[in-house]
Design a protein that fits this description.
heterodimer; A: 171 residues; Tumour Suppressor Smad4; 2 domains; 6-stranded antiparallel beta sheet; 5-stranded mixed beta sheet; 1 helix; B: Helix Hairpins; Immunoglobulin-like; 6-stranded mixed beta sheet; 14 helices; 16 strands
Chain lengths: 171, 488
């Protein structure tokens, strides 16, 4: 059985949407069981993953570029990965211009902040950091606290407010 | 080329897909593979995907593949209907409990058989009850003349008006005469109540007079009111008409008409019921209806699904061109008319009982249809999909087309449950569900519909029922979300 994350109704395996509240059930339990991703499922002991802290040394290079896929708009963006890659919504009036601008993907409606999150290189690998956004950032269904780097991996799902984006490494 | 997979199915694109669509589909499919499997040397299915893209993206190899494939499927002939099947998951996991599988059936007309517009045998059945007085009847009169102007000499048109009793004001067996139609319709006066069965019966009689197997035979009902006591008789008439290959569509003007009844009336022939908020929309809807009739490719479509043991049908919904639930039957389920360039999508929801690893099961669909360009009666087309069972299959997100279809069904169902709850007096449940619906509509980018849902949620709590216009706005608004979308 699958449990609906929104209303806790039990549905048969394979069901794609909750019959009670309409919430999407795919890529949840199913995904966690077959694809062990760092945060795709809360730890067995109920302890949330720890942020990556410690001395910053030379970053480990995992990829030179990142491909972002935004399912809602169907858009794909490939961006070079520097020290820091900012994600948010552009606002010409305030001269905000993030590296990954989600304003054309329904970002405003989905509650993406202007400075929402950043992808940063750390000694332990690639990480995402929430920039005190209004509506929060999730990594594979786990909401991360602001201003702390959390590990991300190739293929991970990020949720900014209500907007889902997928991240892939490119050579 | 025995053993060669259908590369269109591998990429999940229709046979008429453009090169851009194929590239897009290829990229989407690649994303479904875990990185470790994105290597033709590692994964057979990835190898097939790359092969499919290589062959279909090159016009020369694509043409060669199309020809070889057609010859294999139907030696010597070209299929008039193109059927594709997509499963939400394949292989399925081996589990000890019941699981759900969605099957998307995409039925399209073969573009190679594009033909002349078939002759149209049309009858307009117009409500002239008191409530139609003023602007409504005025608009309907103007629309009738406008439609008549668009007909061709080989077509025929009849006009029937009804209130408590019905009259033929333009008989079907006269040649299309715009001046006659204009002068006759201009004399329509409004009075009396709405008795739909009367108008329907007379309208169908007119259509039978000029009925032609090579033509599209269609009745359009225009009404703004409730009919009383003759619902069952009307539906029987519609059933009979459907059996005789006459399709019926209904245009409800304003919000005082009975949507459940009109839905039932158009269901047997697979027609559509539309909600017209104002009478200004009559003309555009009639024109749209006429265009649709002109694109008719096959009529009297029927679907039969063959399920293996341990599979059960949970529900079947037609998602386009007009979304509606289909009553499950082992024999033949009516799907109505198929148009050129507008594939028909059917979503079958199956319950699958436990299987063991390594088992396979075949689900088959058969479509029977009267194909207009080839004059084939009860032509049969079939397609099969083989499903495998595996312990812990690698995770693949389901095809976007399947997810999209299931999500639209999901919205439609939430809507339907609200009406049920309102009718059963479960006001709190209904209000709560409307709020959920608003969230889902907003997620789908339907801000306006979401606001209507929220407004109705408040209204239910206050008054205990939905407003008639809110109900229709939501019902037909959600439907239009579902319709005119297909695998592409």
């Amino acid at each position: 059985m699958i449990t609906c994350p929104d209303c806790q109704l039990e549905e048969l395996e394979g069901t794609l949407f909750c019959s009670n509240c309409g919430a999407a059930l795919l890529a949840d339990e199913n995904q966690a069981r077959t694809r062990a991703r760092p945060f795709s499922k809360p730890d067995q002991t109920g302890v949330s993953p720890a942020p990556l802290v410690g001395k910053r040394t030379q970053p480990v290079e995992v990829a030179r570029r990142l491909r972002f896929i935004i399912p809602l708009s169907g858009r794909q963006v490939v961006l070079p990965l520097g020290d820091r890659l900012e994600i948010g919504r552009s606002d010409p009036r305030r001269d905000v211009k993030p590296d990954l601008d989600l304003s054309q993907d329904g970002g405003a409606e989905a509650g993406v902040s202007r400075h929402h999150a950043a992808i940063v290189q750390t000694a332990q690998g690639l990480a995402v950091m929430d920039l005190d956004s209004v509506n929060g950032t999730w990594v594979n269904k786990y909401r991360i606290p602001p201003r702390l780097p959390f590990a991300v991996d190739n293929g991970d799902e990020l949720k900014l407010g209500e907007l889902v984006i997928h991240l892939f490494y490119e050579g | 080329m025995p053993g060669t997979p259908d590369y269109y199915a591998v990429l999940a694109v229709p046979r008429g897909a453009t090169t851009e669509q194929i590239t897009l589909a290829f990229n989407q499919q690649v994303e479904r593979f875990p990185t470790a499997e994105r290597d033709p040397a590692v994964s057979l299915s990835f190898r097939q995907l790359v092969m499919a893209y290589r062959i279909l993206s090159n016009p020369d190899s694509r043409t060669a593949f199309d020809q070889a494939y057609e010859n294999e499927v139907r030696p010597g002939t070209t299929n008039a209907l193109q059927i594709q099947l997509f499963a939400s998951q394949n292989p399925l996991p081996v589990i000890t409990e019941l699981q759900v599988l969605y099957l998307l059936v995409d039925i399209g007309a073969n573009p190679a058989l594009l033909s002349e517009r078939p002759p149209i045998n049309l009858c307009l059945v117009i409500d002239r009850s008191t409530s139609m007085a003023g602007e409504r009847i005025g608009r309907v009169k103007a629309a009738t003349s406008a439609i008549a102007e668009r007909l061709r000499p080989e077509d025929s048109i009849a006009v029937v008006v009804f209130s408590d009793y019905a009259d033929v004001i333009v008989p079907s067996d006269s040649a299309v005469n715009v001046n006659l139609i204009r002068s006759r319709t201009s004399q329509i006066s409004t009075s009396g109540a709405t008795e739909i069965e009367q108008g329907l019966r007379l309208g169908l009689m007119e259509l039978y007079k000029t009925k032609d197997d090579a033509a599209v035979n269609h009745l359009v009902l225009l009404t703004d009111g409730h009919t009383y006591g003759d619902e069952a008789d009307s539906i029987r008439l519609a059933q009979q008409a459907a059996d005789d290959d006459i399709s019926i569509s209904a245009l409800g003007i304003g919000h005082e008409w009975n949507d459940t009844f009109l839905d039932e009336l158009v269901a047997p022939s697979g027609g559509t019921a539309a909600y017209l908020e104002t009478s200004e929309q009559v003309i555009t809807h009639l024109e749209q209806c006429l265009r649709g009739l002109g694109r008719a490719f096959a009529q009297g479509l029927q679907l039969a699904v063959t399920l293996p043991a341990r599979f059960e049908a949970r529900s079947i919904h037609k998602l386009s061109s007009a979304p509606s639930p289909v009553q499950w039957s082992y024999d033949a389920m009516p799907l109505g008319t198929l148009q050129h360039g507008l594939p028909l999508t059917v979503l079958v929801e199956l319950a699958v009982h436990p299987h063991t690893a390594g088992m396979t099961a075949r689900v088959g669909v058969e479509i029977r249809a009267n194909v207009i360009p080839t004059h084939q009666k009860f032509a049969r087309y079939s397609r099969e999909i083989e499903l495998g069972f595996m312990l812990d299959p690698p995770f693949r997100p389901p095809l976007p087309a399947v997810v999209r279809a299931v999500n639209k069904l999901n919205l439609y169902r939430l809507n339907e449950r609200v009406w049920q709850e309102v009718e059963q007096g479960a006001i709190e449940d209904a209000a709560h569900r409307l709020e959920k619906l608003a969230t889902r509509l907003r997620e789908a980018g339907q801000t306006e519909l979401a606001q209507t849902a929220l407004r109705e949620a408040e209204n239910i709590v206050r008054t205990g029922h939905l407003t008639p216009e809110g109900r229709k706005e939501l019902k037909y608004g959600t439907r239009s979300l579902i319709s005119y979308d297909h695998v592409s």
